[in-house]
Structure formats: structure tokens, C-alpha cells
Design a protein that fits this description.
The complex is a heterodimer of chains A (334) and B (210). By secondary structure, chain A is of the alpha+beta class. Chain A contains five helices and 21 strands. Chain A has two domains: 184 residues, no CATH class; 122 residues, Beta Barrel (Cyclophilin). A seven-stranded mixed barrel of chain A has the order 13-20-17-18-15-14-21. Chain B is an alpha+beta fold and 210 residues long. In chain B, strand 4 and strand 5 form a beta hairpin. The chains are: A alpha+beta (334), B alpha+beta (210). Chains A and B meet through strand 16 and helix 5 of A and strand 1, helix 2 and strand 4 of B.
Amino acid sequence: MTITVVSSGMLSSIQDLGRNGFQKHGVIVSGAMDTYSLRIANLIVGNKEGEAGLEITLLGPTLTFEKDALIAITGGDLSPEIEGKQVPLWRPVLVKKGSVLRFGKIKSGCRAYLTIAGGFAIPKVMNSKSTYLRAGLGGYHGRALKAGDRIETNSMSHYSSNLFNKLKNNEPSPSFITTSWYVDFHKFINFSNNNSVRVLKGSHFSKCSASSQTTFFTSTYIVTPQSDRMGYRLSGPKLKLDEKFELLSEAVTVGTIQLPPDGQPIILMADRQTTGGYPKIAHVISVDLSLIGQMKPGGEICFQEITLEEAEALFIEREQWMGELKKSLQMKMN
Amino acid sequence: MLANYLEIHPFSGLIECVPAYTNVTVYYQPFVIYESFKQKSDNLSPFQIVKSLLKEVIEQLEEGKSTNNRVAEIPVCYGGEYGPDLEEVAKHNQLSVEQVIDIHSGGEYCVYMIGFAPGFPFLGGMSEKIATPRRSTPRQLIPSGSVGIAGVQTGVYPIVTPGGWQLIGQTPLELFLPEKNPPSLLQAGDIVKFVPISKREFLHQKEENI
């Protein structure tokens, strides 16, 4: 099966759950900005949840399908349509041979995830299919998609084939067929551009002045247009340190909130550098990272402190929910 | 040492470790820890479990000392088109260009960590005599292999990136080799020496890479 890119959209790149295990060599993790939506998109088409999908940013691409293909689109609603008919999100879609998939208006969120049964036939580099844009490696030739690209797909799993055949036997439709069931994603994400984000205090939080410590938790921060896959640069009331201190660079992680000298916090995201030398004032909890990855410039964030134990309990609850979802989807495909 | 130990003896749920100047960051999967310990641990959270695991390892390690540092020689063509800021560095420190080269290539540098870019070594041990502040305006594109100075730090750019360091030379060596394992030529703990080479040697070695 081959997908042909007719037009690329703003930034469409192949991403999985990241290139882990090489940070000590300075190799960034990359991966989907909203891993929650990518994982669900994979489970819906019968893939392993860590398979690579297409991360589509704001303005989507136009794609054609050489053969019948089983796909799912999750994440932000960027108005996908086939032959003028709206394609529903969060459910399997059997796209008919020769169909053209387009994206339109941005209805909600910032990034959509498109997965295909079998996954993209892209070689792994350092154990991952994720595109590392700056180093030009991984993904589709180390870069975002361009018009004229042709992406091959792998053969389908047992679950995918069953679902594919079930849908194919449904009533004939000119362009695509979908199911009545869908995944209710609401429990762990929303696509609002105005969010309360839960954080843990970072190791340098206490170095902020007393008034800045209060300001951080009581103000609204705006997502600036300089935000990208590397980090979300926020603008809001300036945060100050009690006194300047020298910090040697050390490892950072996704969700780390750094405070550069200009006093405007930065939330590190998927394409963050592996190490950083700015004070770390807080960390976004893992469960809320996908929420950030779906925010657009102009979005508003308020920070709310929770404890490490609460963050861990939320994480475990979400993973258990994911496990249940996986089981129930596999039952539908058996 | 801790990072090396965990690499050889990983616990279930460990993702990776990143050593830095004075600490090691340990990345783990809380749910895997939770699943594998839920029968055994008396309501300990994943963080508490990992913390006690690491404590045990550190206590064991205390006796040994890390000894076998590798020495890596990095050939550098100083100045000219390869080191456009060499004269600036000399002027700033009231030295001649030759003195800067002698001081820079006369030192031994310890790789404290790899970060900022793939294969980029954070080196300690540069003489303060050649310390120079970063450029006021960063360059849009720095060629890979460029050797730079920023304050009292020196380093080598493994891939083409923007950057604000003062560029004093370039190495024909490739520091980031994505198809090799490990993908980074240098590792934390290595000792680095810079060896001056001529433009001819530089071009010759560069050709051999292809």
C-alpha cells in the first residue's frame, strides 16, 4: 500500500513515542507532541500503540490512497474530509482505493494524528521511526513530508485484517466506511485553548522571589507564536530569582518548565535538547503533557500545583484505562 | 559510575540515564514499576521504589572508583576560513593567534557530559587565558566539526546548528555517527586533546570520511 502526498500542509512528520535510550549521546527524544492521541489512533486500527503515525500540524496535507486502507485520525479536529464528506475522528475508517483525504479548517486542538493499519514502512534509526528534524534523521528521509512523497505501509496485524474485512463487507460507499463505535477520549484530554495545567515544583522553584512564587501559580500565561515542537514559550508576568546563581547544564525532560533570564517560562516539549542550563522551576505532570501539545499560540495556561503522589496516581489511572481500552478494542477485532 | 552500573544492570522499567557534571538523571516508566512491584511493596509509590533501588546501588558503588578514562585526540585546523573568530579571541585576551592555538591545543579536557546537540561534548579544563564571551549575535549556521569557545568552555559542534560560540577552528572528524553504536564519538568521562593540523591535512582527512 502506498500513500502519495499531494500537498504537505504546514508541518506533517512521522512520529512515534520517541527515540529513547540515546540522550546520554545528546540525541533528543522527539516523538509525538500528544502521545495520548497517537497511542489511541494506533489501537483503533489494530496496531501496537507505539507504532509511528503522521503528526499533522494546524494546516493538514492532502493525501491519496493507492489501495483500500484502514486508517484512524485522532487528536485535534483539523476538519479531515474525503470527497467533500467529513471523516469522523477517534474511530476506524476504511478509505476506498483512489480516495483523496484533505484537511480544512482548524476546529479544535493543534495537532492531528493519522495512523494506518500495519504502520508506515520506515526504517528505524536508533530504535525509533520518529523524525529528528534538526539532525535530518529518522522518519521519512529525516524531514517533514513534501508534495510528491510516497510512503509505503507494512502488512496488517491479525486484528487489523479482521476489522478491515468486517468494514469491507458493510454496505457499499463511494469513498469511505466507518463504524458506529468510537473511542471516548474525554477522560484524559480536552482540546480547549484555555487550560489549567497541573505541575510539580521544580528543584529551583525556591530560588524564585517570594512574590514570583505566588505570581507563577496565580497568573495566566499565554502561549506565544514562538512555540514549537521544541518548547512552548510563554508570556506573562515576569518571574524573578532572589539572586542570580550559576547553574551547570544538566539533563531535562519533557514538561520541564525552565526560567531563562528574561523571566518568561518555557515548557520543554518533544524536540527539547537533552540538557539545559536554565533554572527548572516546575514540571508539567505526564498526564497533562498531551493537553499542552494540543494548544495553539494565543492559548491561556494557569498552573496548579499537585503532589508527586497525586501525579503518579493519575498516571497509573490513565495507564490502567489505556490497558482496558486496548483489551476492549482487541475484542471488537477478534 | 552509577550510569554505567545501571546500563549493565538495568532494573525493570528503567528507560535511560543521563550523566551531567555533578549528577545523573534517571528516566523510568512509573507504570512498569507499579505493575512489577504492586504485590511486593507496601504501598510504596513508583518514585519511592526507584529511590530505594538507586540508594542500594549507590551504597554498593561507593567503594570503587572510576579509573579507565579513554583519551581521544581531535585534530583541528585552527584559524582562517575554519576558525573565523580566532583573531577575535586573540585580541580579546591580548595574545597572538599562535599563543591561542598553543594554549588551546596544549590542554587536556575532560568530557563532563554530552548534550545540547547529538555528540556535543561539554569539556572542562580550558585555560582562562583564552576565555572569550559568546558572540553578541549568534550565527545562523555553524558548520559541523567547528571548534568553539564560550566563556571558559570549549566544545565541538557535531552537526550544523545555529550557535553563538566563538569559532577558532574545525576538525575533520565526525563526532555524531547515527548509524554506529554508540552514535557519539565521545562519552562522558573521556579525556580530549586537540592536535593542530594544516589545511592540507584537514582536507585529506575530510576526504577519507567519504
